[in-house]
Amino acid sequence: MCRLGRADTPLLYHKRIGEVNMTIAVDLGYGNVKLYGGAVGAQTVVLPSQVATNGREVVHGTALEQGERPMEVRTAHGSFLVGLGAHDWGRPVENLALDRFVGTPEMRALLYGALSQYPMGHALETDLIVGLPLGVLSGEEETVRGRVAEIRGFLQGEHRWLVDGERRSLQVGEVKIASQADGTLFDYLLEEDGSMPPERKQELGKEIGILNVGFCTVDLLVARAGRTVQRFTAGDTRGVRRLLSLVGDGLYSLGELDAELRAGTLDVDEALPVWAREVTGLLDDQWGKSWRRFVRVIASGGGAVLLRNALIRAFGGRLWLPESPVLATARGLWKLAKMQSDHG
Questions:
Q1: From CA 314, how far away is CA 295, in angstroms rounded?
Q2: For strand 32-37 and strand 23-28, is the pairing parallel, antiparallel, or unpaired?
Q3: Which one of 187, 270, 301, 342 is separated from 38 by 20 to 30 angstroms, measured CA to CA?
Q4: CA distance linking residue 197 with residue 189, whole number of Å
């Protein structure tokens, strides 16, 4: 289960991100692992968060098309297939609990798969700024500190793996942690070079609502003058997987249903309005009419694309949907890192 609560951490925009050779923003989402940034220019990777233990038996010589085999990532914990179609080739691994972020074998395989697709050039070392769901950053302060320390411990240091038989390695230096909602906010506030236009700086002093609809989670955050407004900030588990559960019958993995949804072959005509009402009901419970105080409501995540019409009806002209909502968190975190590096 993805258990979520309230977020008790302030925004991190006032802290400086160190530089080694580059900084990569990482969004370790339940639906996709997203990477954004680099030393020169912005490079992106979106890897569907589907992982399976490696099936060894492959059928050859039939009249049917075999299809393209997913990426194979081998670590000290075993061999995994990652990315779209992984559940067609191996035994699905679907861990939607919070412990995935502390370096479970499947999380490592997904991260290494994404890094393997990232154009690193000659760089062998990087810093990371990582976006996490509010649920990971919620709870008793001591518990959250311990969890963040575990995540940082998993990410920092030397990483070695094989991808499709090719050896890879990467040294990770400094790791900064923020919420996915923070990334969405700074994607709106900042330009690609890390600068903040005057009109956005004025809005930062007012209340801005952030809605991140991911695969597992729906995160709500309200910022005023760069800090969270706690009573408007919360997380829930009615993300896109809730939509998939409404159309699923237990015969398919979530990954298989997700692949059909991405391909446009999953019939969600009846389930989509039901799920939309659940999400807008959550918004009403948490924000009520108070959203009219907000100068802007920013929505991101793959779920925001599916809920676009419902969100427009709910918030009208105050709604802002970023370009490529799936990438908004990682892109915003990279902009944040850029701003802190240039002006810290």
A1: 15
A2: antiparallel
A3: 301
A4: 8
Number of domains in the chain: 1
What is the C-alpha radius of gyration for the chain, rounded to an integer number of angstroms? 20
Cα three-residue angle 335-42-39, rounded to 5 degrees: 85
Q: Are 67 and 88 in contact (CB under 8 A)?
A: yes
Q: Is the model's pTM score more than 0.85?
A: yes
Sheet holding 91-93, edge to edge: 43-48, 32-37, 23-28, 125-132, 166-179, 157-163, 71-75, 78-82, 51-53, 91-93
- Structural domain containing residue 316: 23-57+71-343
66 occurs within a structural domain: no
Q: Which helix (H) or strand (E) holds 72?
A: strand 71-75
**Is position 15 within any domain?**
no
Question: In whole angstroms, what is the distance from residue 30 CA to residue 50 CA?
Answer: 9
Contacts of 202 (CB under 8 A, 6+ apart): none
Q: What is the CATH number of the domain that holds 273?
A: 3.30.420.40
| Residue 169 resides in a domain | yes
CA contacts within 13 A on the Cβ side of 71: 22
Q: Is residue 5 part of a domain?
A: no
The label of the residue with tokens 């793996």 reads: 161
Rounded distance between C-alpha atoms, residue 32 and residue 301, angstroms: 10
pLDDT average per 10 residues of sequence, the chain (344 residues): 37 33 86 83 87 63 59 93 91 83 92 92 83 90 94 95 94 94 94 91 93 94 90 91 90 92 95 96 95 96 96 96 93 92 67
Backbone φ and ψ for 82, nearest 5 degrees, come out as -130, 155
* Residue 167, strand partner residues: 162
pLDDT at 156: 96
**Mind giving me the DSSP string for 278-331?**
HHHHHHHHHHGGGGGG-SEEEEESHHHHHTHHHHHHHHGGGEEPPSSGGGHHHH
